[in-house]
Amino acid sequence: MASSGPPTTVPARSRSVLRRRLAAGVPVAAALAGTLLTGPAAAAPTAPSVPSVPSAPSAPSAASGNDVYVWATGVNLRPCPRVSTTCRPTGVRLGREYAAAYCQAVGDRVVDGPYENTYWVQVAAHGQVGWISAVYVRGGDNNQPVPGVPGPDSCV
User: Fold this and answer.
1) Left if phi > 0, otherwise alpha if psi is -120 to 50, otherwise beta: which for 140?
2) Cα-atom radius of gyration of the chain, to the nearest Å?
3) What is the DSSP string of the chain?
4) For the ranges 42-46, 50-54, 100-104, 136-140, which has the lowest average pLDDT?
5) How does pLDDT run across 78-111, given as a tens digit for each residue?
6) In the prediction, which pLDDT does 5 show?
7) What is the four-CA torsion angle of 122, 125, 127, 131, rounded to 10 degrees?
8) Long-range contacts from 85-90, C-beta under 8 angstroms, 24+ separation
């Protein structure tokens, strides 16, 4: 009767092929083991670095610590809460990122699809301080201030 289980011996030809394959893999395995043992995992554990929002060159208000999330892309940072030609964008664009918010004030009305707002938020982003429309900040409702951001009395 033929055995239905695995063979108990390996033919000589298969053993020599197996030896060559194992020998070729030993340097690779040793290199990988060395990398695993001496790489970052073997280093002493350190606290994870937390990305921080760049601080403003000169903070407009001592009170803050509020971060807002800019949900849209290509949001212009402006020197004032207006969209007029006298208030041209600074060249900094925000998008899908957090920014430090200092205060909010009423300015020009901005409409983008179903969203509209007259509130603007003063933020620090990419080394500059400026204003973005509250339309592009997560939270709040149409024509309402952004929750958690100080009001106009906090603006300088």
Assistant:
1) left
2) 30
3) ----S--SS--HHHHHHHHHHHHHHHHHHHHHHHHHHHSTTTSPP-PPP---PPPPSS-S-S---EEEEE-SSSEEPBSSS--STTS---S-EE-SEEEEEEEEEEEEEEEETTEEEEEEEEEEETTEEEEEEGGGBSSS-TTSPPTTS--GGG--
4) 50-54
5) 999 999 999 999 999 999 999 999 999 999 999 9
6) 53
7) -30
8) 90/128, 90/130
Q: Which two tokens stand for residue 97?
A: 């990122």
3-state helix/strand/coil string of 80-99 = CCCCCCCCCCCCCEECCEEE
The mean of the pLDDT values for the chain is 76
As a whole number, mean pLDDT of residues 47-54 equals: 45
pLDDT for the residue 1:
52
The whole-angstrom separation of Cα 148 and Cα 77 is 20
- Single out the residue of 147, 76, 68 nearest to residue 112, CA to CA: 76
pTM here is: 0.60
Is 151:79 a contact under the CB 8 Å cutoff?
no
